[in-house]
Amino acid sequence: METQVNQATFITNQQVLEHWQGHRALTRRVIEAFPEKDLFTFKIGGMRTFGEMVGELLAIAGPGVIGLATNEWKALDERDKSQESKEKLLEFWDQATEVINEYWSKIPEERFQETQSAFGMYENKGYASLLYFVDNEIHHRGQGYVYLRALGIEPPAFWER
């Protein structure tokens, strides 16, 4: 007699994308909360400005999903292309969101279990790289919250994604 086993899925790829995009929407609101000057000049304790941190997030998010989809990884490019313009930085953020949405469905399911050299820097399973992208964003957004509070600005509610 053959036994059939039903395997439940903990979370679907679409749910992972929605979760990440919720984080990205919150990070966008944190960027919006900064006065433009402080976004690119204010720092505490030797940390980078939040604008510089956002540059890192932009270097990872869209290119990271393209890397997962194509298995072609370019070197990180964290240069500030916004020329210290909050409006431009938000445009780049929105463009990265579009890239993520475009390439997400092109990531082969098995790619999440394959070992890759993300950005030519470290070898990891695809799912671990993806979780790093999200964790890194949360980490830097937390730094942005500290900066906003130090500037006397109430940051967006972190639970509203």
Characterise the protein shown here:
Helices cover 57% and strands 5% of the residues. The chain is mainly alpha-helical and 161 residues long. It has one domain: dinb family like domain (Four Helix Bundle (Hemerythrin (Met), subunit A), Up-down Bundle), CATH 1.20.120.450. The protein has a two-stranded antiparallel sheet. The longest helix is centred in the C-terminal third of the chain and has 25 residues, at 126-150. The mean pLDDT is 93.
Radius of gyration: 18 Å
Shape descriptor reads globular
Strands ordered across the widest β-sheet: 1-2
User: Which structural category do the helix and sheet elements fall into?
Assistant: mainly alpha
As a percent range, the share of helical residues equals 55-70%
- What fold name stands as the CATH topology? Four Helix Bundle (Hemerythrin (Met), subunit A)
CATH architecture: Up-down Bundle
The count of DSSP E runs of length 2 or more, i.e. the number of strands, is: 2
Mean of pLDDT: 93
CATH class assignment: Mainly Alpha
- Name the CATH superfamily classification: dinb family like domain
Beta-strand content: under 5%
Q: How many helix segments?
A: 5
- Count of the domains: 1
Distance between the termini: 48 Å
Q: What does the largest sheet look like? A: 2 strands, antiparallel
How are the SSEs placed, and which strands pair?
Blueprint: H1 13-33, H2 36-41, H3 50-70, H4 86-104, E1 115-118, E2 122-125, H5 126-150
Antiparallel strand pairs: 1-2
Helix pairs in contact: 1-4, 1-5, 3-4, 3-5
